[in-house]
Amino acid sequence: MNISRTQLDGIMRAYQKNMESKDKLGKKTPKAQADEVSISDDVREFANAIKLVSKVEDVRTEKVEELKAKIKAGTYNVDGKLVADKIIEEIFTDKLI
Q1: Of 31, 37, 66, 81, whose CB neighbour count within 10 A is largest?
Q2: Which parts of the chain have pLDDT scores under 50?
């Protein structure tokens, strides 16, 4: 759902008009309260875990070096069935999401 600037302006005018009419009726308007955010311990742990994981390198250099050596030596073989299985698995996983 998209809300355009004109729709938002209309909502704000309606809200302000409503607040003004309450003032005219003599009712007290509620005092503005500051917004407050409370974060649970679980969320703090999760955020800390994300921060720690982001510091870890995405590339396992020892694995890359091992594969480079195998490719250079001509001993690296790819199992086509495993590749096909992974491709199909990813396609079906994407459709489920």
Answers
A1: 66
A2: none
